[in-house]
Amino acid sequence: MRSWRDCRPTSWLLGDDEADTRYYAFYALVEEIPAVTRERVTAAVNGCVDDPDEQIREWATRLRSGELWEA
Questions:
Q1: Which of 15, 16, 63, 68 would bridge 8 by S-S if both were Cys, CB 3.0 to 4.6 A apart?
Q2: CA 69 to CA 71: how far, in whole Å?
């Protein structure tokens, strides 16, 4: 099972101790940086599905299920 800390290779900010920092780093990676490949985003999503913060976990889980991906 991957840990939320495993998303560090994608962005060290995703492994920060502060939930707000992790959330904004995750948001930027998923929504704002066009050059990031879907594979890198998927790796971050998979690493964040068990994040200690409920908001990050829920968002990552919804992304992982395909619910929020654009067609």
A1: 15
A2: 6
Per-residue confidence (pLDDT) for residue 5, from 0 to 100: 52
d(Cα 39, Cα 36) in Å, to the nearest integer?
8
Q: What is the pLDDT along the chain (71 residues), one digit of tens a residue?
A: 455 455 444 467 778 889 998 999 888 888 888 888 888 888 889 989 999 999 999 999 999 998 776 54
Residue 17 DSSP SS3: coil
Residue with tokens 């889980």: 61
Where exactly are the structural domains of the chain? 4-64
d(CA 27, CA 33): 9
Token pair in block for residue 61: 């889980």
CB 54 within 8 Å of CB 20: no
- 52 three-class SS: coil
